[in-house]
Amino acid sequence: MTETDARRSGLFSRYRPLPDSFDEYADAAGKVRPEAARVVRLIEGLGRDEVRARKKLADATFLKSGVTFSVYSDERGSERIFPFDLIPRIIADADWQRVSQGLLQRIRALNAFLADVYGPQRILAEGLIEPEHVLGAKAYEPKAHGVAPPGGVYVVIAGIDLIRDPNGEFLVLEDNVRTPSGVSYVLENRLVMKRVFPRVFAQSRVEPVDEYPSRLRAALGSLAPDGEEGLVVLTPGPFNSAYFEHSFLARRMGCPLVQGSDLYVEDDRVWARTTLGPQPVRVIYRRLDDPFLDPDCFRKDSMLGVPGLFGAYAKGNVALANAIGNGVADDKAIYPYVPDMIRFYLGEEPKLGQVKTFICAREDDCKYVLDNVGKLVIKAVNEAGGYGMLIGPQSTRKQQAEFKRRIRENPRSYIAQPRVDFSTCPTWTSRGIEPRRVDLRPYVVTGAEGSWVLPGGLSRVALVKGSYVVNSSQGGGSKDTWVVEEDRG
Amino acid sequence: MISRVAESCFWLNRHVERIDALARMLDVSQSFQLDVDLRAAERWRPMVIVVGEEAAFEGKIPAPLRDDGETVQRFLCFDEACGASIHSSLRSARENARTIRETVSVEMWMTLNDLWLWFTDRKAQRLYNSDRSAFYAHLRNQCALFHGHATATMLHEDPLEFMRLGTALERAAQTARLLDVKHHAIGPETEGPESADEAAQWLAVLRSSAAVEPFFKRPENEVSGESIARFLLFDPGFPRSVLHNLRRMENFLNLLRSEAYPEMGAPSRKLLDATLVAFESGGFARVMATGLHATLTALVDRTIELGSQIHADYFAVSTRPARDSKRSMEE
Fold this sequence. Notes:
The complex is a heterodimer of chains A (489) and B (331).
Chain A lengths: L33 H13 L1 H18 L2 E3 L8 E3 L2 E9 H25 L4 H4 L5 H5 L21 E8 L5 E7 L6 H14 L1 H6 L8 H10 L9 E5 L7 H11 L3 E3 L3 E4 L2 E6 L2 E4 L2 E4 L3 H4 L15 H6 L4 E3 L5 H4 L7 H9 L6 E2 L3 E2 L3 H9 L4 E5 L8 E3 L5 H13 L4 E5 L5 E6 L2 E10 L1 E5 L2 E4 L4 E5 L13 E9 L5
Parallel strand pairs in A: 3-23, 5-13, 6-7, 6-11, 11-12
Antiparallel strand pairs in A: 1-2, 4-5, 4-20, 8-9, 9-10, 14-17, 15-16, 15-17, 18-19, 19-22, 20-21, 22-23
Helix pairs in contact in A: 2-6, 3-13
Chain B lengths: L2 H33 L4 H4 L1 H6 L3 H7 L8 H10 L7 H14 L6 H14 L2 H9 L1 H22 L4 H29 L9 H13 L3 H5 L8 H10 L7 H14 L10 H15 L2 H8 L1 H24 L9 H6 L1
Helix pairs in contact in B: 1-5, 1-6, 1-9, 1-10, 1-11, 6-7, 7-9, 8-9, 10-11, 10-14, 10-17, 14-15, 15-17, 16-17
C-alpha cells in the first residue's frame, strides 16, 4: 500500500492486492480505502512484535473462555479454537446500508416463497418454477404443507453468505435459512478485539453487535402462541460441534438450553422436565435439523429429537424457529430462482446480485457444465461445509472425470457456477500481511414485528494462500467485521 | 429448572469437592510420612481404599509398587483409569460445567477451564515434580475460587442450591471416609492410651480436613482419637463436619421447596430427617458403643442412599407432582 503509511512500522508497505480481485483495504492503484485508513494507521503504529503479542493474547483468550468447536473425527473429543485473524474486515457504512436493504428484501421474498410453497403454490401454478423442481426436492417437506407457523414467520434466523466480485459488488452466494451458525463467533470475536485492541476501538466508530441476543429473544418471544412465555434453545447435545454456540445463545438470552430428552409431548403440547415437574414450552429455537426433530414423524432412528413435536407444531401449540421445511428455500437448486421470486412476490427488482448458476437438471445447462467442468465450480445440491464441491480451475483431470460421471448419473443433484474471484482482505500470515479471500455471512432476525440485520456479520477467511475455501473444516478462519463511518479526518 | 441441568449442577460440585478433598489428603499424607515411622502398608494404601479404587489400583499397579508413595500419588492424581483420580474428577467437573455453561457463570466456567488446561499441560507436571505442596495448594485454591465465584456471581436460587446440596453431601461423605482411613491404617480401635505415632496420625486426619485451627478453638478438645472423631462428626460449626453438612443439606432441600408443589422432594427431606435423627440421638457415646468403623460405614451408605433419593425426586421426574390437595379442593 502506498500513501504515507510506509514511514511507520511499514507493516502494510509491502502489501500488494491480487490483480483480478477486489481488495477490502486497497484500491486498484494500491491506495488505502478511506474506511480502512484509520485501522491501517493504528496497526502500523503498533509494529510487528506488538501485533504478534496481541495475536497470542487473542488465541489464549479464546482457549481460556472455551470458545471452541469440537472435532468429530477426533476420538478424544478434543476442542479447537476457530482460527482468528486480528486484522478486521471493514465495510463502509454507506455500502452496508445498501447490503442491508438487499438482505431485507431477500428475506421477505424467501419467506413469501415458503408460505406459498407450503400453501397455495401460486408460483408453481403460474409456471415460474417447474413444480417437480420444488416438490421433488429432497428438502421439500410434504408434511409441512398446510401448516402455517406462528406469525407466518418461516425464516426467523437467516445467514446469507455474500461475496464481493472484482468490481466490489456484493453478491449472494448461498442462502441459509435452516439452522445457520456462527453468530456466537461474531460476538466473541468482537469481545476479544476490544480486549487486544482497546485503543483502535476507542478511535474508530464501529457499529456494535452485542444487541443480537436481545433482538433474537424479542423476535422469538413475538412468535409465542397466545403470547405466553416458555422459550428454550434445543441442542443436539454437548458433542455437537456447535455446542458452544447453542449454550452461548441460551446464556445470553437467559433461557434454558435443552436436549431432546429434556422435552416431551402430551396431548400435542410440549413440556420440559424440570425439578418442579413439567413446565410448558411455547417457543423452541431448535438447532437440530428437520430429519432429527421428531422420530415419530421424520427419521425413526433419531435419538436427539422429541417424539410428537411435529404434532404440537402442526396444532399451533409451539413455535419452531426456524420453521419445518425451510430447506426448500435455501436449496442450491432453488437459489437461481430467488431473483424471480423477488419480482414475483414483491414486484421489485433485486437489490443484491447473485452468481450465475447452471442447473444440471436442465438439459442445456447440463451439457454446458459437462463441456466446461474445468472452468466451473460444481456443487452437490445436498452438501454443505465445502464438501461435495469441485473447483474446476484447481482440479485434476481425474477429479473432473469423476464429477462428470456423477453429474451424468444424477444431474438433479448438481449445480455449477463460474468461479468468482471474490474479494481479499489483508491477513496476518507467517510472511507478513498478505491478501486472503474473505466471504461474509450477515445475520437477519425476523419476528412478528419485522426484521433486523446484525451490522456486519461473520467474515470467514481462506487462510491458505491461493485458496477459495473459507470453511473452518478446511483451513478457514474468521475476522471481526466492522461497519464503520468513513474516516474524514 | 431443567432436571438434567439440576443433576449436572449437583454433580459439578461433587466433583469439585472430590478434587479439593483428595488434594488436601494427599498433601497431608505427603508431609505426614516425614514425621512418623509407619509400616509400609499403613502409609499410602489406605488412600486408595478411602477413594474406593482398590480394584483399579490392583489391576494396574504391580504388587511390588503398591506401597510406593510416588506410585500411589501418581495414580491418584493423574491416572485416567482411576475414576476417583484428580484427573478424572477434574475432567468430569469441567465436562459438567461445559454442558451447563448457560447456567454457571462465566467466571466459574473460566476457573475450571483454566484449571483443566493447566492440569493437562506440562506446567502442572513441572510443579508436581518441583514443589508438590504448591501443586496441591493450587488445586485447592482454584476449588475455593470456584466456590467464591459461585456465591458472588450466580443468582441465589435453584441452580446454586443444587450445587451447594452436592457440596454438602460430598463433604459429609468425604469426612466419614477420611475418618475411616485411620481404621484402615491401624486396624480396629485399640484400647488404652494412644502412642505418639497414633496421636500424630490423628493430627494428620485433622489436617486433612483443614480442621487443626478450628479444632483447637474448642477449649475442651485435646489430641486424642475420641476427641478428634467427635469433632469431625458432631461439631455443629465446623464446615466439614458430618453434622454441619447434614444440616446444610436440610437447609438446601428446604430452600428448594415449592409452594405450588409441596410434595416435590418430600421423600428426600424425609430420608434426611431420619438420617439426622438417627445420627444425633445418642450422640458420640452411641458411636463409641457401636464402634467407629461401623458407624462410618453406615454413614457412607446413608449418603449414597440420599444421593439416590435426590436423584429420584428431582432429576428423574417425568410426571407432574400432585398439587397442594387442600388448595385444589378449595378451587
